[in-house]
Write a structure and sequence with these properties.
The structure is a single chain. The protein is an alpha+beta fold. It has three domains: 50 residues, RNA-binding S4 domain (Structural Genomics Hypothetical 15.5 Kd Protein In mrcA-pckA Intergenic Region, Chain A), CATH 3.10.290.10; 91 residues, Pseudouridine synthase I, catalytic domain, N-terminal subdomain (Alpha-Beta Plaits, 2-Layer Sandwich); 76 residues, Alpha-Beta Plaits. Helix content is 21%, strand content 26%. It has six helices and 15 strands. Strands 5, 6, 7, 8, 11, 12, 13, 14 and 15 form a nine-stranded mixed beta sheet that branches. A four-stranded antiparallel beta sheet has the order 2-1-3-4. It has a two-stranded antiparallel ribbon with strand order 9-10. The radius of gyration is 20 Å and the shape is elongated.
Length: 234
């Protein structure tokens, strides 16, 4: 097993995060600093910041309905409540899979499985995420939905085509396969319908369902397998 993967399975960080941790010089293998995240690991002693790791731990994934005002990070330097703190009973080190901005609500996953987190968030896998946006700006005309479906020119480039439909007056459902910062809000703003409330209702094969705001549940083996298949089913 490669060192970065070992760290990810030990619950240290996502695979990409573990790679950066190794390159920063924080990891020792049998007492010597190791900077190569691809180094093969067998039975060596692995230390992070001087503390020996016990090895891979049981992998878990939780679905959480994120309330507004909670930030999608493992810790926050400004004292704001984080999504990790909402799963207080879990002793394993969890981190969110991707992010929702502070005011966006809905489905977010938390895990110690760095490999799965990478599979669900890496741009090349194009895992679908579905949002429901309540918008201002008057009636949403068909041409506005067509623009969302075709792609919107933003300051960081044109968006990929999205699935868009009007669920109710002033409520747009959008399915995206890319994850730019505040993308849904910027797309809706560009068509003249600024977002007043935003909720993520689906991530890959997983739906938010009836999970109450602030509540969470551990995913079943069947749900995890379906998530792992999501990149193949795009």
């Amino acid at each position: 097993m490669r060192l970065a993967k070992y760290l990810a399975h030990a619950g240290v960080a996502s695979r990409r995060g573990a790679t950066e941790i190794v390159r920063s010089g924080r990891v020792r293998v049998d007492g010597a600093v190791e900077l190569d995240p691809a180094r093969e690991i067998e039975a060596q002693t692995i230390e992070l910041d001087g503390v020996a790791l016990a090895g891979p731990e049981e992998l878990v994934v939780y679905a959480l309905n994120k309330p507004a005002g909670v930030v999608s990070t493992a810790r926050d330097g400004h004292g704001r409540r984080t999504v990790v703190e909402l799963i207080a009973q879990e002793s394993r080190r969890l981190y969110p899979v991707g992010r929702l901005d502070a005011q966006t609500t809905g489905l977010i996953l938390l895990t110690n499985d760095g490999e799965l987190a990478n599979l669900l968030t890496h741009p090349r896998y194009e895992v679908a995420k579905t949002y429901r946006a309540t918008v201002a700006g008057g009636p949403v005309v068909p041409q506005a939905l067509d623009a969302l479906r075709s792609g919107i020119e933003l300051d960081d480039g044109r968006t990929a085509p999205a699935r868009a439909r009007l669920l109710a007056p002033g409520v747009i459902e959008l399915e995206l396969r890319e994850g730019r910062k505040r993308q849904v809000r910027r797309m809706c703003e560009a068509i003249g319908h600024p977002v007043t409330a935003l909720e993520r209702v689906r991530f890959g094969s997983l739906e938010l369902g009836s999970l109450a705001p602030g509540a969470h549940r551990r995913l079943s083996d069947a749900e995890l397998e379906a998530l792992r298949q999501a990149p193949r089913n795009r």
